[in-house]
């Protein structure tokens, strides 16, 4: 079981790439390693590294390698997100894709070729580093493909799949055999018409990435202490398995955090323990990567209020209660292996078109039924309706009982 954190630099946030200071990075990494964590996820800013379609800055790539080497010196492995993309409410898109050069991020041949070369270049630069875990294509880049983004690059589900395969292939070409994957925000699981689908998440790449944020309606509906709020990450993990073709495909809880005011600061540690505990009760979880390492400096303007205080550590590197809670679990829970979930709840959601996703969203009929069952002590897995009578599929997952939502009452 792996425990890690999404690295948010204390000096300059992700703008630190503009004034890269390896000593400051080392100090940040020291404070992370002291929490008994074993990996970080890092975020090159795409426009900083790739400011022109034909220019990938060698100095920026060199600094990324220096960061990965510094992490390795502290016993930390590193996953690198490539296309940033979207971070904490800000979009970071190169000028050669916007305004006078406006081109679709997912379908324009020149853009797609340049993105692939960028990902290939980053992966190749790190391919010989033992601490390099692999690439994530980008941080929730699916948010650029549909509403509520104010200027979406509209695509079909087929086009989304084609783009994802091309980006993952580029990562593999750069660093063969590493753990390369992609990451969507939860519209992929919950929005009926979203072009990035659950099947994309659960079948493409080396693992399924889950990003669990309870400000999506879960905490608003169930409250900060509601059982569904603490179970949301586990629910997404189990939901993801319904679409996987590999019955033991690893699932990475790659982002999860305690956003105020939905989770009051005084409850952040308890929420951390509850959320991680439920997540680690799911089989086939690769690990948990908390969002985020350090609070955002309040000298930086225009962040949503909740973004400033999500760190496990303060901006001056002092450990917060949530940090102590995760460190304790990293020490005590790393060797735990959960039992198989033998009872599955049937989701009436289509496999290919992913119709019926809204029933699986907070407030949806399936979501609420699963949460009631889990709150009553059941450990429900999830199976798609068209697989509910597939004996081989059920046996491969260790499922011996299948229940419908109606049967729960």
UniProtKB/TrEMBL annotation:
Source superkingdom: Bacteria
Keyword entries, A-Z: Hydrolase
A single GO molecular function term of this UniProt record: hydrolase activity
Protein name: Glycosyl hydrolase
Organism the protein comes from: Streptomyces coffeae
